[in-house]
Amino acid sequence: MIYIATTTINMPTLALRKFAKNNNCKLIVALDKNSKEFKLENTIVLSTKYQEKKWPKLSKLIGWNCIQRRNFSILEAFERGAEIIALIDDDNIPYESWFKNIFVNQIIKAHKININKKVFDPVGYTNHKLLWHRGYPLEMINNRKYKILGTKIIKPDIQASFWDGDPDVDAITRFIYNPTCKFKKKYFPFFSKKISPFNSQNTLLSKKVIKDYFLFPHIGRMDDIWASYYITSKKYKVIYSEPSVFQKRNIHNYLNDFKMEVIGYNNNFKLVEALYKNPDKIYNFLPINSSKAFDEWKKIVSKM
Q1: Residues 235-265 as b or e (16 or more Cβ within 10 Å = b)
Q2: Which residue of 56, 144, 173, 289 has the lowest C-beta tally within 10 Å?
């Protein structure tokens, strides 16, 4: 069984209802202070009181009214013995293929791709070559060149599946292109050995990753991006697979998104340079409460 971890401030969306209906999955939803209590079939709903009581120190360090409450859904799934934990957003409407094409912990063949940059951008490799993944260093966008190194065997620890519709790009890309995407299947699946970004929506993780995978609080919209840079700097294997959801994005203010991404625009390039030397350099870029939260996370996971 695959456990699906998320958080929401909405009543059950179409996406959540579709995930909950599949008996091969168990949905776990961590509520936030702005959430309304609800019940949904085949779903474990973590109340705010439950989270505070079970993980008091981590709950306080992460804080409320933030998407990083998803961390508690991940912990709950891990404690329940999940072999694979999927992270989704409540606006990721799954295709039927979502429940069939699971590659984590499986030996598969995929295209191995190189890029003439220190960071691999998975979006630019596809048929949407003008776009780039949220969190990709701005200094590396120009003149991205990809090379297919052949079809190779890989056993991925992480599966970052794509999204049709509104893609996961940064605010600058949205201001310029306001894209709606349909990604061509011929490019997938693929991987690179370089540090690369992946998000916390429509992403599946092997349980062995969880001790090092943490959605960092207090760094705006870089929470999952810096998690991905950290995890790929530690040599976990990531495969990018074809879209298995349609993202009908919740209402966002692009200017607010931009403000929450500034920390990344200023630091992503420097962060990656540091991580290539030593993954623990992540601490040099984290606010103090974020560092403390990550340490607490590792303590909790190590005891489970």
Answers
A1: ebbbbbbbbbbbbeeeeeeeeebbebbebbb
A2: 56
Phi then psi dihedrals of residue 242, to 5 deg: -60, 160
User: For the domain with range 2-303, which CATH number is right: 1.10.287, 1.20.1050, 3.30.70, 3.90.550?
Assistant: 3.90.550
Instruction: Show pLDDT as tens, one digit a residue, over the chain (304 residues).
Output: 899 999 999 899 999 999 999 988 999 999 999 998 888 999 999 999 999 999 999 999 999 999 999 999 999 999 999 999 999 999 999 999 898 889 999 999 999 999 999 999 999 999 999 999 999 999 999 999 999 999 999 999 999 999 999 999 999 999 999 999 999 999 999 999 999 999 999 999 999 999 999 999 999 999 999 999 999 999 999 999 999 999 887 777 899 999 999 999 999 999 999 999 999 999 999 999 999 999 999 999 999 9
